[in-house]
Design brief:
By secondary structure, the chain is mainly β. Helices cover 8% and strands 53% of the residues. It contains 2 helices and 27 strands. The longest helix has 19 residues.
């Protein structure tokens, strides 16, 4: 071997070794498939198999697309990310645990779209939010979350800092509670729009601490222990154009300064229509419809018009 050829061979080998030592780079867009492999790059031609395996290879602010129907495993989200299962049965089976945990930063935005979360009658939370700047839950199906210290929850917000939550076009069924929010500091500002909640022995929508501000619109809540529940001091909830039916209590406010405002709702066939205690307030626009309910408290405030 000539000296020149030897130098070329040695240099080429060193380059190949160096290239093989460089770790795989994260990507803005990644893919997950039931037939994928988490050891791969999560690309379109070599998708990963689980969401947990894919998220580590996705850039902050990036997007994970589900390529086919399947069960993709529980995942912890610790950065801005979008997960889209559109066009597929993109499922997470979480018997005995939480399907999706969102523990992201104060400026991170998380979007979850077209996902099916199944607690199989033993899960604790469909989506558990401990931190994020904002989270959107769109067109998801959440059911079967029934275990935990107070029972299972479809969507639970237990934030250590301010967070904004938007739940839309989503179904939460066969869980102990539907949507429960509380904060240790800061605030929770959440909108619940066009959501169906069925068969929950606990709460449909609940604000359990101060600093929680909820808006419920175009939402159907059936067969809950309490459809709308406020136990957080000074918490607020606005309920517009919604239907509260066949529950133990339609609206219950049990904390000083807590206020539920009711506008153009249908309240039918509940054991108790309204319940007020401990200095709480239920304000109405006097345009709600009611029938077949057991009598409860009388609204003690009105919604101002202008």
């Amino acid at each position: 071997m000539t000296r020149s050829l030897f130098r070329q061979f040695t240099f080429g080998g060193m380059m190949i070794a160096a290239m093989s030592a460089v770790p795989a780079q994260a990507a803005t867009r990644t893919w997950v498939s039931g037939s994928g492999d988490d050891s791969g790059p999560c690309s379109f031609t070599a998708p990963c198999k689980t969401l947990a395996g894919t998220i580590s290879k996705t850039d902050p602010g990036g997007e994970i697309s589900v390529m086919g129907s399947g069960s993709y495993g529980a995942v912890v989200i610790n950065k801005a990310i979008t997960i889209i299962g559109e066009g597929n049965l993109a499922g997470i089976f979480a018997n005995g645990g939480t399907a999706i945990t969102v523990a992201a930063g104060a400026s991170d935005r998380v979007i979850l779209r077209n996902l099916l979360l199944n607690g199989a009658g033993g899960g604790t939370s469909g989506i558990y939010i401990s931190g994020a700047g904002g989270i959107t839950i769109d067109n998801c199906f959440i059911y079967g979350f029934t275990t935990g210290s107070v029972g299972g929850v479809g969507v639970k917000v237990a934030a250590s800092a301010s967070v904004q939550v938007d739940v839309r076009n989503t179904s939460i069924t066969h869980s102990t509670h539907g949507f429960v929010a509380q904060t240790m500091s800061g605030s929770v500002i959440a909108s619940i729009d066009n959501v169906r909640m069925n068969d929950m022995p606990g709460y449909g929508v609940a604000a359990q601490s101060s600093g929680v501000y909820l808006s419920v619109r175009n939402t159907f809540i059936k067969s809950a222990g309490i459809a709308i529940f406020l136990s957080g001091p000074s918490s607020q909830i606005n309920v517009d154009h919604s239907e509260l039916v066949n529950s133990g209590t339609a609206v219950s406010v049990t904390a000083a300064g807590a206020t539920a405002r009711l506008n153009d709702n249908s309240v039918y066939n509940n054991i108790t229509d309204l319940s007020i205690a401990n200095g709480g307030t239920i304000a109405t626009g006097f345009n709600n419809k009611s029938g077949g309910n057991g009598a409860g408290s009388v609204p003690n405030a009105s919604v101002s018009t202008f």
